[in-house]
Design brief:
Blueprint lengths: L11 E10 L16 E8 L6 E2 L6 H4 L12 H17 L7 E5 L7 H6 L3 E5 L3 H9 L4 E2 L5 H11 L2 E7 L8 H11 E12 L1 H6 L12 E2 L2 H10 L2 E9 L5 E8 L8 H13 L4 H4 L1 H22 L4 E4 L3 H10 L9 E2 L17 E2 L3 H5 L3 E4 L5 H8 L8 E4 L5 E2 L1
Parallel strand pairs: 4-5, 4-7, 5-6, 7-8, 12-13, 12-15, 13-14, 15-16
Antiparallel strand pairs: 1-2, 2-3, 3-9, 8-11, 10-11, 16-17
Length: 407
């Protein structure tokens, strides 16, 4: 296997999470009678460019299907994050009615709706029909294509260049990361700005966030690796910020290599911090597998003990990260009765691999479980605020990552 960016041989495996189904391949009742496709979930690090990655066992169109079940607007905290971002970039880069904003992986219009509120022209690029339709219902143009150099050239020929592009939590989702990044260099205006958000690799390793590893995430990103990839495709990072989403993410600001945006000292500071943390040290990566096994064993010990003592355990949040955790630990519906999720697109279906049924949040009050395992631990505060009534019958919330903890 070779690095998807620099083509160097990948000799160091970071973690092996076993064979797993695609994390967002939720099942209908009828599909439970059939077979599921499983693929190895193994992570490697490139010692040349330090890109952390998994093999491409699934093509993008196999993972991001027409009935894709993840809708960004379900999370109120994520909507607030998007609205704050739009206000910030509109003010910082003086965007107005003459500008054009393009978001790649625009999902259900969760972000561009706020751009439109400013009276700024905007377009979304979103390959999944289900979420693109939801965006159009909000009045947001959605182009149902995968983004890369081909589409970028078409857009420039038809409409000109974009003043701002946004790409949140998608850089990790592309198998051809070089072509994807090169597309932004083509689409951007000479002084245009491209922003990207992605979970920070340092938090993944140091916080043992191994459950953020799944087949949709082809890459796991540090600024060290991203800066190399961007430079190779004609982009220059001129600023970086830390944001709290998804367990700690980076927001990078990039422009064409020859643009005049001055470099912030934050870029070098973050590169230095990553160097100190161990991003360029092979030994740093070796700790993840042992920590993940500890989490797995602690979770299984708790679930088995609860079942033996007649206590009922449910889960909240049918999230992709939860599917990685449950399948790695071998948890099935005999240990977790059901999972609640606010997304109607997931309700009535079953988690891939574990086959735990997905119910509406009202099922908590109906069944009154003793414990509720929050699978998307990154939005635990939001879940506690909306579902705190489980305390009425003595129910308790807990998370498993980065350690088993009652909330």
């Amino acid at each position: 296997m070779n690095c998807r960016h620099c083509n160097a041989a990948l000799d160091q495996q970071v973690i092996d999470l076993g064979h797993q189904p695609a994390s967002n391949a939720y099942l209908s009742a009828a599909q439970l009678e059939g077979t599921e496709a499983y693929a190895p979930l193994q992570v490697y690090v490139c010692h040349q460019c330090w890109l952390v990655q998994i093999p491409s066992f699934h093509a993008s169109h196999e993972l991001f299907t027409a009935d894709y079940a993840y809708f960004s607007s379900i999370s109120q905290s994520w909507l607030a994050h998007a609205k704050a971002y739009v206000g910030k970039v509109v003010d910082r880069f003086k965007l107005g009615s003459d500008d054009w904003v393009v978001e790649v992986a625009s999902n259900d219009g969760y972000l561009l709706q706020y751009v439109a509120e400013h009276g700024i022209k905007c377009s979304g690029i979103e390959p999944t029909a289900s979420t693109a339709a939801a965006a159009r219902a909000k009045g947001i143009e959605s182009i149902e294509r995968f983004f890369g150099t081909e589409l970028a050239r078409e857009l420039v020929a038809e409409r000109g260049h974009a003043s701002l592009t946004a790409a949140n939590n998608v850089l990790a989702h592309v198998p051809d990361i070089n072509d994807f990044v090169a597309g932004f260099a083509i689409l951007l205006a000479p002084e245009g700005v491209a922003t990207f958000e992605f979970p920070h690799l340092v938090n993944l390793i140091d916080g043992c966030q191994f459950d953020t590893i799944y087949h949709e995430h082809y890459s796991y990103l540090s600024l060290t690796a991203v800066a190399k990839i961007f430079a190779s495709q004609g982009l220059r990072i001129f600023d970086v910020e830390e944001v709290p989403t998804h367990g700690g993410s980076l927001r990078v600001y990039a422009c064409r290599a020859g643009a005049s945006h001055p470099a912030s000292s934050a870029v070098q500071a973050m590169l230095t911090r990553e160097q100190t943390a161990g991003v360029t040290d092979p030994a740093w990566y070796a700790r993840l597998a042992a920590e993940a096994e500890r989490i797995k064993l602690d979770l299984l010990e708790f679930l088995i003990s609860a079942r033996r003592n007649g206590r009922r355990v449910a889960a909240y949040g049918a999230a992709a990260k939860g599917n990685t955790l449950l399948n790695y630990a071998g948890v099935r519906a005999d240990l977790v009765d059901f999972v609640c999720d606010a997304a109607p697109s997931k309700q009535g279906r079953f988690l891939p691999g574990s086959h735990v049924p997905v119910l509406a949040p009202t099922a908590l009050a109906e069944h009154k479980p003793d414990f509720v395992l929050i699978l998307p631990w990154n939005i635990a505060a939001e879940v506690l605020a909306s579902q705190g009534h489980i305390a009425d019958w003595g129910g308790k919330f807990l998370v498993a990552v980065p350690a088993l903890k009652f909330l």
